[in-house]
Write a structure and sequence with these properties.
Elements (H helix, E strand, L loop, with lengths): L2 E7 L6 H17 L7 E7 L9 E2 L2 E2 L5 E8 L4 H19 L6 E8 L18
Parallel strand pairs: 1-2, 5-6
Antiparallel strand pairs: 1-5, 3-4
Helix pairs in contact: 1-2
Length: 129
């Protein structure tokens, strides 16, 4: 049930965001046990002035190639699973898309299952009466 948001500069070529999305999706499956076809993503390209970051933070220097990734998913994954997930995304984006690892920002938001609705106005994963 993950929902991924990918925000990146419009200076990246067409299809770049979709490639990032595919890397995230594969990492979700491999490291966070997300089933096949559970792929919900919004990819948004921005003018460089719309992506606001400090020049440096925690000793990391950022560039205009920065990519923000936010994934909302059910709670319950271990810290180790999350570390492996982060590493898989970072390694995949660095290797496949030649982005500096310093320019990859990932944020996870964990929610209860009843905080999802997948259509028809029904709470598919809510408590059963």
């Amino acid at each position: 049930m993950p929902f991924a948001r990918i925000d990146l500069s419009n200076k990246h070529p067409d299809g770049f965001g979709q490639q990032v999305g595919e890397i995230i999706y594969r990492a979700l499956q491999q490291y966070l046990n997300v089933p096949e076809n559970d792929k919900f993503q919004v990819i948004t390209r921005h003018d460089s002035k719309e992506l606001v970051t400090p020049k440096t933070y925690l000793g990391i220097e950022y560039s205009d190639d920065i990519i923000f990734m936010q994934v909302t998913l059910n709670e319950g994954r271990t810290t180790e699973m999350k570390k492996n997930f982060y590493k898989a995304i970072c390694d995949g984006v660095v290797q496949k898309l030649k982005v500096r690892p310093q320019d990859i920002i990932i944020n996870l938001i964990e929610v209860n299952k009843e905080n999802w609705l997948f259509g028809n106005g029904e709470m598919q994963y809510g408590p059963v009466p």
